[in-house]
UniProtKB/TrEMBL annotation:
InterPro entries: ClpP/crotonase-like_dom_sf, Tail-specific_protease. Residues 221-436 form the Tail specific protease domain. The keyword Coiled coil does not apply. Residues 1-22 form the signal peptide. The keyword Signal applies. This is S41 family peptidase. Keywords: Signal.
Length: 452
């Protein structure tokens, strides 16, 4: 259902007429479940009419939004601020702001205040967010959102460009330092850094970091990473870093398939202590030491979503041996030292079994990603090795990881990955034998090992 309300809104800066009066703003109601009503409220303290969204019948999961469109002419590559004072009555689910950017009919950006909704019996709070407007943007659509029953009244619902800071610009704030650090890391390290016009894009992003919230900051860093088009770079805010670091570490798991065939399953290893990494590699090597008489092995990488590749290849050292396993290559074509299944600076132990010629079947799937794919690449070219399952996720690049000034974590795809033969991988690792069904892939791997 759509309902239209016309308000005179002097706060919509970019719609001021030549005579100094505001153009009428047309507010539409988007109400998929037909449970909400849009109306004008009493004048706000600034003299504008309030925007009121109400429902007495909506369930907690139902929602509606007010929406209006604005041309982004003269706003491209600038920082846009959306703000309002929201007053809620008997709202339990929450109310907030939202904004979408379009290039013609194509949506190219979306933001909302979902993480900080206003709710309660009688609560008034100011909300705002800032967003960088891409050069290709043609219009912005924005408004107020209400989820569940209750009433939200919006006063001072303004959208407009953030004015540049004067001499008092606090370039030393942690947020500005974080944005500057992230931009520099991407510009100097990213494989596809040349896709971004850094000279024109950097100033507005630093300005956004100065005036925006932490959510605004990380949303724009994610947008910047997406524009690198590598499918692998990512960023995590400090609270996510802390939560992941607190999760228990998973270890490799051994399964005895038959009296002479064993299976080792490698989990992902996203966050880890130094002792945790050592324990991961020790656990894998102990599995092989305790089952050294197996005539064939299955290496299951189907749930290895990534993290740190080095403990993973070290866990497989009895199968991989001491040979070169692969290489990284930067965007200038410079190769790294070869990968080895030995921790840097650690003297290899000679008391483990040498299984480097034992037949190995490797199981792959769409959840095999990032470091898990690097392990698969390290196994490519190994004698008596065959791959079963389906193509991997496709994050076959080496990430460089950085701790941001505010405690967040940035990972930038900075290197290509090459196997021991020198083949570069730019996409999924493909199996030798395609088996979509996981059980069928395991059976095919076991049959091959018995034949080998």
């Amino acid at each position: 259902m759509k309902k239209r309300v016309f308000l005179v809104c002097a706060g919509v800066f970019v719609m001021i007429s030549a005579k100094g009066f505001a153009e009428p703003v047309q507010w539409d109601l988007f109400d998929p479940q037909h449970q909400f009503a849009l109306s004008e409220g009493a004048p706000c303290p600034d003299g504008e009419k309030a925007v009121v969204l109400h429902s007495a019948t909506a369930s907690p999961t139902q929602y509606a939004v007010t929406q209006t469109a604005l041309s982004t002419d003269a706003l491209q590559n600038k920082v846009l601020r959306l703000r309002a004072q929201l007053s809620v009555q008997d709202v339990q689910a929450g109310a907030g702001l939202w904004l979408t950017l379009y290039d013609g009919t194509k949506q190219i950006g979306f933001r909302n205040t979902q993480k900080d909704l206003v709710h309660g019996q009688s609560v008034t709070r100011r909300q705002e967010m800032v967003v960088w407007v891409p050069p290709q943007a043609t219009r912005v659509v924005y408004g107020v959102m209400l989820r569940g029953p209750g009433t939200v009244t919006a006063c001072g619902l303004h959208v407009g460009p953030v004015l540049p800071a004067g001499e008092q610009n606090s370039d030393q704030s942690v947020a500005v330092q974080t944005m500057a650090f992230a931009i520099n890391a991407m510009r100097t390290q990213a494989l596809h850094a040349s896709l971004i016009d850094w000279e024109s894009r950097t100033p507005p992003l630093l300005e956004l970091a100065r005036v925006g919230s932490a959510d605004d900051l990380y949303a724009e860093i994610r947008t910047l990473l997406a524009d690198l088009h590598d499918g692998h770079s990512f960023v995590m805010p400090p609270d996510t870093v802390r939560k992941l670091a607190a999760q228990p570490e998973q270890m490799p798991v051994f399964t005895k398939i038959s009296p002479d065939i064993g299976s080792i399953s490698l989990p992902f290893l996203m966050f880890h202590s130094a002792e945790g990494m050592k324990e991961f590699s020790r656990t894998g090597q102990q599995i092989f030491a305790q089952a050294a008489d197996m005539r064939g092995w299955i290496v299951d990488l189907r749930h290895d979503r990534g993290g740190n590749m080095w403990p993973m290849v070290q866990a497989l050292r009895p199968l991989l041996g001491s040979v070169d396993l692969g290489f990284f290559e930067d965007r200038a074509g410079k190769r790294s030292a070869p990968w080895r299944a030995v921790a840097q600076g650690v003297v290899p132990q000679d008391d483990g079994p040498d299984l480097s010629r034992v037949p190995v079947a490797v199981l792959l799937g769409p959840q095999t990603a990032s470091a898990g794919e690097a392990v698969a690449i390290a196994l490519k070219g190994r004698p008596n090795t065959r791959f079963f399952g389906t193509a991997t996720h496709g994050q076959t690049s080496g990430n460089k990881s950085f701790t941001l000034p505010d405690g967040g974590r940035l990972a930038v795809a900075a290197e290509f990955e090459l196997d021991r033969t020198g083949k570069r991988y730019e996409g999924p690792v493909q199996p030798d034998v395609v088996e979509v069904d996981p059980d069928a892939a395991e059976r095919a791997a076991e049959v091959w090992l018995r034949q080998g």
